[in-house]
Write a structure and sequence with these properties.
mainly beta, Methylamine Dehydrogenase, Chain H, seven-stranded antiparallel sheet, four-stranded antiparallel sheet, 3 helices
């Protein structure tokens, strides 16, 4: 199983159908999985808000119980709104607007007090706010692969600062630069004016580096490495292809090494991981916790950095099982669901990138949202941790939770 296989599995989910029969997970974990009890009538996650794309294509903001709807963009004939995400302070929402061959980035105040529309030359298929909320990184197709553009949110201007393919980026904690991974191994920082600073070698067999408070996480010589102010720290051996996502605090990294089942990968001489299994690495000690023996198509850390959402293909790859791991509770299975075709196609194949730009988790880390079909009903679902059944809160096919 390689990166192409992960992408193929995610795309297959678009046409897949949920089945009534559960497929048991093959789990390798240091702690026993636990099972939640039956759900109460209500799910009581009540922090933050959800931005959703509704069934008719409108963009709206709702409370976690489905109430308090605020329209951001009403559906228009011939217009498609894409991938709305929150600004870091949750005061603004950015999204794409596509009308035939006319493309734009919209940035709207949730309060309704202001909005801007910024023309772009092609469909903006990925956006990521800088941590300070002053800039918006955008990727879209260009004449030389992909164009990486930066939006100055206060000025409402946009400029191309880099190009290449494939192209992935991660913001510095200060928001003044990004680290990019482009092509077979270009590994550089790029500032807001487009000035580039090479960082040395990096491997081709991963997607996106991640800029943590402690430094930049990437892969070189088949090792997961953290590059900070001092000497680089090799956290683990990860093989030729890997997916990884660190928690917001930079204290833990969830890793899935991709490869043939007969291969094994040594982790810091303390543990071993069968390829396609998921492990959690402590960045301070390099200790390894193998948490699930099944491959995933999505990993999202909770804001408090204590819980990890895993999206695992089941039922022959036509559906997903949403699971949550934490050190205290081990691995808990939640919903079996078919993800919305839009998120399965556009988001899941590239989840290490999207795990940095948006979240399914509530700000207090007490619940998560999913978009798709559960038990024959399609829409936006909210799961409270410790509750077996989710609550249907809206129709629609895209969801992202605010940070505040």
């Amino acid at each position: 199983m390689g990166l192409r296989t992960v992408i193929a599995i995610a795309i297959a989910l678009v046409a897949g159908a949920c089945t009534d029969t559960a497929e048991q997970s093959s789990t390798t974990t240091t702690r026993a999985a636990v099972t939640t009890s039956s759900a109460p009538a209500e799910v009581s996650v009540d922090t933050g808000r959800l931005v959703v794309v509704e069934a008719d294509g409108s963009v709206a903001v709702i409370d976690p119980d489905g109430s308090g709807r605020v329209a951001i963009a009403q559906a228009e004939e011939g217009v498609v709104f894409t991938q709305p995400i929150w600004s870091p302070d949750s005061s603004q929402i950015s999204y794409g607007r596509v009308s035939g061959a006319v493309f734009a980035i919209r940035v709207d105040e949730v309060s309704g007090e202001g909005s801007m529309s910024i023309p772009v030359s092609n469909n903006p298929f990925f956006m990521h706010w800088s941590p300070d909320g002053e800039s918006l990184g955008v990727l879209h197709n260009g004449n030389q692969g992909l164009d990486f553009e930066l939006v100055d949110v206060s000025e409402g201007t946009i400029s191309v600062v880099d190009r290449g393919s494939p192209f992935y980026f991660s913001w510095s904690p200060s928001g003044d630069r990004v680290v990019i991974h482009e092509g077979a191994g270009r590994f550089e920082t790029v500032d807001l004016e487009g000035a580039r600073s090479p960082l040395g070698e990096t491997d081709a067999g991963y997607l996106v580096p991640q800029w943590l408070p402690q430094g930049i996480l990437h892969v070189v010589d088949d090792r997961l490495v953290l590059v900070g102010d001092g000497e680089p720290v090799a956290l683990a051996g990860v093989g030729e292809q890997t997916m990884f996502v660190a928690n917001p605090q930079g204290t833990r990294v969830a890793v899935q090494t991709l490869g043939a089942p007969e291969q094994t990968v040594s982790y810091a001489q303390t543990d071993s991981l069968r390829p396609n299994a998921v492990a959690v690495i402590d960045t301070a000690t390099s200790d390894i916790d193998v948490i699930d023996g099944r491959p995933v198509v999505g990993l999202w850390w909770s804001p408090d950095g204590e819980s990890l959402l895993l999206l695992t293909p089941i039922s022959g790859g036509s559906a997903l099982m949403a699971k949550v791991w934490s050190e205290d509770d081990g691995l808990v299975e939640y919903s079996r669901y078919r993800p919305s075709p839009i998120q399965a196609r556009d988001l899941l194949p590239f989840f290490p990138q999207y795990a940095q730009s948006m979240t399914f988790w509530s700000p207090d880390s007490s619940g998560f949202a999913i978009a798709g079909e559960v038990g024959g009903e399609i829409g936006i679902w909210v799961h409270q941790l410790g509750v077996a059944e989710p609550r249907l809160v809206s129709d629609g096919f895209w969801v992202a939770w605010s940070g505040e």
